[in-house]
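Q: Branched-chain amino acid ABC transporter permease, please. Structure only.
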Amino acid sequence: MLKKMNKNTKSNLITYGMVIIAFIIMQTLIATGSISSLLEGIMVPICIYVIMAVSLNLVVGILGELSLGHAGFMCVGAFSSAFFSKCMKDVIENGILRFLLAMLIGIAVAAIFGIIIGIPVLRLKGDYLAIVTLAFGEIIKNLVNVLFIGKDSNGFHFSTKDVMGLNMEPDGTVIVNGPQGITGTPQDSTFLIGFIMILITLFIVLNMINSRDGRAIMAIRDNRIAAESVGINITKYKLMAFTVSAALAGGAGVLYAHNLSTLTANTNNFGYNQSIMILVFVVLGGIGNIRGSIIAAVILTLLPELLRGLQDYRMLIYAIVLIAMMLFNWAPKAIEWREKHLSFFRKKKEAVK
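A: Structure for Branched-chain amino acid ABC transporter permease:
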């Protein structure tokens, strides 16, 4: 048991070390002006996608359920935090305090939605769960697009028609403007904050996986009937994993909202496309492999920008890399090759000891 714990601890430390070293290297390159402003600008999005991939892997890889509504929780966290920041922009002048409160609100609201959605949805499994979670993500996106919220001296006004339906006084301010979203959110997100959020996400997920609760969740994934027969509360542990995953996605949404001057809800950022892209990161990195999710998210986010100069061949190379990563992680021959060589190096290291 001690040997197993040491192995898990060692693996976790490697993951933390990999993230910290990558951050130090990128910060050094940014400080010395060695990378373009375009690459510097996608550092926060990379942090967002890493958090999304790791949090989704908790549901798909550790719990063993296919969820396609992860972008919906990101949307909830983004809009609830942006709404708070826009309202409190002139009240709380300290940007760090305001952003911290916005982060807590975004995470809490996403967690509440995770519980509300999880209680009925987690009774389903397989394709049915995927379809319902996909529908949830689309419903959230469409609800945001028809919502108009304004504020004047009389308080808040709500409408689902248009701005005129708010019936505000002339001095009123429109906060949420339907399809045009929220404009003027303080741009408080930074690469440092994104890095800290990644470490917090890893700490929560890795500790959860290696805990008693994590072993119960994996037991449910491996054999639900056997887990239930030994007294594991299926609903409790499934809801726990789903809610934690939703809360972390909400945190990524807060980073996303505070990295843009205008926040809108469309298919590419909070819809089906976004959910599928995050799922691709999880699958290509290896289902249940947290470190793999991080690597896949970084590579597949950086690659289109690094290949931008190749123009016509950019997406072709991107597709080839996708196929290569898929074959490396999932092809039987590639798995056999990895196990053979990894076991060789492991035996060699043990022999040296």
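A: Brief note, in case it's useful. The chain has one domain: 2-306.
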